[in-house]
Amino acid sequence: MELTIPPKVTERAFARLAEIGAAPKALRIAVEGGGCSGFQYDITLDEPADDDLVIEGQGQKVVVDTVSLPFLADATIDFADELIGARFVIENPNATSSCGCGTSFSI
């Protein structure tokens, strides 16, 4: 069985979750088929499920389901506040290409 390096969550992402009062819900990062590059990220506030990977910090939680986990191995989940808008962003070393919107990628 191959070990998967779990994604990392930045302090800035946890701070934004605390700022918006996400708890007791968690930020769910999922990978789904679709988008202009083959896969897309689905980022929502959700209740943690029993089989989720739970990453905790600053009293907040980020969860990843077991199906999405291999696609997010060694990725970094961050929060960016830029001119184009404020959003959670994912730096994914597994993605071979991505589209301009940043939510769609291919492997």
Structure description:
The protein is mainly beta and 107 residues long. The protein has one domain (8-102): Sandwich (Hypothetical Protein Aq_1857, Chain: A), CATH 2.60.300.12. The protein has one helix and nine strands, in the order βαββββββββ. The protein has one helix at residues 11-20; strands at 8-9, 26-33, 39-46, 53-57, 60-64, 76-82, 85-91, 97-98, 104-106. The strands form two sheets. Strands 4-5-2-3-9-8 form a six-stranded mixed beta sheet, with helices on one face. It has a three-stranded mixed beta sheet with strand order 1-6-7. The chain starts with 7 loop residues before the first strand and ends with a strand. The mean pLDDT is 86.
List the helices and strands and how they pair.
Layout: E1 8-9, H1 11-20, E2 26-33, E3 39-46, E4 53-57, E5 60-64, E6 76-82, E7 85-91, E8 97-98, E9 104-106
Q: If you consult CATH, what is the topology?
A: Hypothetical Protein Aq_1857, Chain: A
Overall pLDDT metric? 86
What low-confidence regions span 5 or more consecutive residues with pLDDT below 50? Answer: none
Name of the level-1 CATH class: Mainly Beta
List its traits.
107 residues; mainly beta; Hypothetical Protein Aq_1857, Chain: A; three-stranded mixed β-sheet; 44% strand; globular
